[in-house]
Structure to design on (390 residues):
């Protein structure tokens, strides 16, 4: 629900006063209040290289699942204005091709600059694809990523205060040494910096006191990094209050201390990771089915009692892969249920969450249907397994 969060964040202002060479009123310096834009969430998971569990041998479903795990880093490429064109909506259609010499990627962009396409290609190259066995048939998979006006992004030139916020937001992805220690924990909430910027001086950075130990550690790491940024306004001294809106695609749950809007975004990130896991489990199940079907075909072509044990074992492995697939679907369904509950509670206070609640309900319904279908597949698979004769 980025739109609602942006509306709240844009209420923040920065104070700008004339520099020492400027005129002052008799009762003190004049104060200009500038509304700050460029306050969007940052996914600290972009600092962690994707590590999907890939089916062996690799197949289409495994490739697609892996591509989905690259989503955080790919979407971060859309934040920088140099990577996008002038339109509000952008997108990237990506394809991974894996052969016995390694992985290559194709990126077709909508409203993306060559620099943006290169950024996405770099993000995809972090995926842990290994070369296939010599002579193996190539394996390919595709995915699409979308970015719109409500997605995290930076726009330069709005005003001096917004440009300060832009510089901090754009630099966040390079501060991995600060974010990485958080690991799979939910990122701390209410991390707020005050940045004073004056011509000819380095920025003065302070953070609000926070009882969260992780927030205190982060503040100590981030302070010198923000102070090292070039944040010189044209002719004013600025005091910018910058809230770090942190989420994490690698966290197992949302932070109860975070704003509800951030919790909703966090759940969406977790769901994407669950969807990638589901794709990988389907890939494992596909391999198990292929192996069992090949053995059945061999037995039918030339019945041999020595193959019966293998038939039982391979069929049991197929059913076990069904169970893993179902378990991953249920984990995804749990995230959908949590998202729906949150959206429903927020809609009770603000009708603008009606659309989000409806979308969450659609996902809950679809997830329940997916679980049911997978359970039916498991039942059918178990039914064909060779039985012991009594």
């Amino acid at each position: 629900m980025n739109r609602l969060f942006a509306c709240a964040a844009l209420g923040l202002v920065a104070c700008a006063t004339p520099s020492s060479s400027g005129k002052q009123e008799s009762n003190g310096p004049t104060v200009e209040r500038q509304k700050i834009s460029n306050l969007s969430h940052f996914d600290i998971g972009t600092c962690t290289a994707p590590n999907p569990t890939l089916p062996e041998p690799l197949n289409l479903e495994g490739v697609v699942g892996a591509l989905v795990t690259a989503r955080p880093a790919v979407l971060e490429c859309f934040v920088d204005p140099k990577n996008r064109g002038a339109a509000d909506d952008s997108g990237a259609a990506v394809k991974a091709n894996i052969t016995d010499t390694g992985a290559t990627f194709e990126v077709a962009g909508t409203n993306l600059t060559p620099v943006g396409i290169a950024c996405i290609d770099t993000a995809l190259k972090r995926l842990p694809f290994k070369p296939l066995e010599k002579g193996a048939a190539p394996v390919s998979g595709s995915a699409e990523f979308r970015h719109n006006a409500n997605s995290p992004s930076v726009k330069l030139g709005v005003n001096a205060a917004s440009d300060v916020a832009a510089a901090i937001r754009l630099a966040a992805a390079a501060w991995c040494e600060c974010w990485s220690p958080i690991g799979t924990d939910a990122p701390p909430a209410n991390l707020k910096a005050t940045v004073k910027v004056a011509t000819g001086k380095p920025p003065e950075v302070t953070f609000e006191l926070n009882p969260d130990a992780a927030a205190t550690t982060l503040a100590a790491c981030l302070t010198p990094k923000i102070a090292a940024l070039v944040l010189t306004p044209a002719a004013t001294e600025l005091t910018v209050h910058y809230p770090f809106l942190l989420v994490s695609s690698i966290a197992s749950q949302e932070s109860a201390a975070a704003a509800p809007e951030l919790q909703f975004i966090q759940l969406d990130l977790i769901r994407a990771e669950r969807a990638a896991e589901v794709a990988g489990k389907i890939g494992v199940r596909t391999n198990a089915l292929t192996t069992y079907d090949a053995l059945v075909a061999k037995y039918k072509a030339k019945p041999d009692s020595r193959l019966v044990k293998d038939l039982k074992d391979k069929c049991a492995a197929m059913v076990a892969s069904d169970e893993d697939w179902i378990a991953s679907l249920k984990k995804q369904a749990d995230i959908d249920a949590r998202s729906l509950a949150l959206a429903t509670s927020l809609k009770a206070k603000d009708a603008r969450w009606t659309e989000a609640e409806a979308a969450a309900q659609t996902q809950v319904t679809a997830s329940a249907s997916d679980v049911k279908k997978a359970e039916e597949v498991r039942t059918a698979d178990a039914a064909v397994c060779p039985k012991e004769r009594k």
Summary: The chain is about 45% helix and 15% strand. Residues 260-384 form one domain. The chain has three domains: 2-41+153-247, 45-147, 260-384. Strands lie at 13-18, 32-35, 42-43, 90-99, 102-110, 139-147, 191-197, 204-207, 236-244, 246-247.
